[in-house]
Amino acid sequence: MKNKKERLQLILSLVNKNSIGSQHELAQLLKENGCDVTQATLSRDLKSMKITKVATNDGGYMYIIPDNNRLQDSMLMSGRQSMTAHQQVGFISINISGNIAVIKTRNGYAAGLAYDIDMSHSNEVLGTIAGADTVFAIMREDISHDEALKFFARFIPIDDAHL
Amino acid sequence: MKNKKERLQLILSLVNKNSIGSQHELAQLLKENGCDVTQATLSRDLKSMKITKVATNDGGYMYIIPDNNRLQDSMLMSGRQSMTAHQQVGFISINISGNIAVIKTRNGYAAGLAYDIDMSHSNEVLGTIAGADTVFAIMREDISHDEALKFFARFIPIDDAHL
DNA sequence: AACCGAAACGAATAATTTTGCACATACATT
DNA sequence: AATGTATGTGCAAAATTATTCGTTTCGGTT
What we know:
Two copies of one chain form a homodimer. By secondary structure, chain A is of the alpha+beta class.
């Protein structure tokens, strides 16, 4: 089982990509990703991250990360504290298509992350563009997906869900 | 007892002004305002208005009306409603190159269209970024151009010129 | 290493929310 | 008026979520 920080990160990513209707369902998804916890823990996790269940247009419910959710920086930082701040707060998910990496962040965090990537002056990345919650990073053509993920691990916590 | 429309209105205002932690609590507030309904009805009301319970900073919960939620739409529209407004106004053209869809809109409409695409949480699209009159949307690698166009037809009026 | 306090967790339970069903009401059609 | 359809509601069961309590784990300290 993973530690709490990894789990919270994984939850963010899963909630963002999937339409999860209950904590039980989330527990199963987590299990598939090698994280075995009970519903009770998820209730606490979701509460701590202010993730909430809302009605969907098709009559059901799903968990979402509310837009304006300014979580305090202290939230995810229980343990070690050595990397860039994105490790703790902003990052949600990363996906790669062709030579473009698409990084999802919490609302408002994309610009800062893009800035950090730019400032690394790495030749793996040709350039970035950031919206409010998305960063596009254009990779050099000969960089493989795996290499790209390895590279971005310098900025964001990449886990099994992405590999 | 008031009719449903009045009640929904009252719920909106109560939820806005108070920190309501449960449906039972809301039921009591409503009663004080001359509206006597059961908790079951409130569950349905809140669902219909997409009002949701979120964690508060002080360890409890409260109901809120999420930010981006344009509930008037679903609430008051009795008749059939056409799709998103882009169908009528903003859209100009769409072109696809590799895994990127480039959508041109009239000036100012790109952000809204990108937002709608994002909010669909479709896994066909990894992410979008919008300028004033252009949306870039990165597609998953295995999505063909045809599939992509079919997908975007949900948001914009795609005609023979594009197929 | 042994100890202490805090944080994390699961099992069980409590609390809350959601929903199936039955019934009532309103409104349109025959 | 009788019928049909759609909407609204309460009741009670079912489903889901939150919390209590006891135990374990993790860091830091002696």
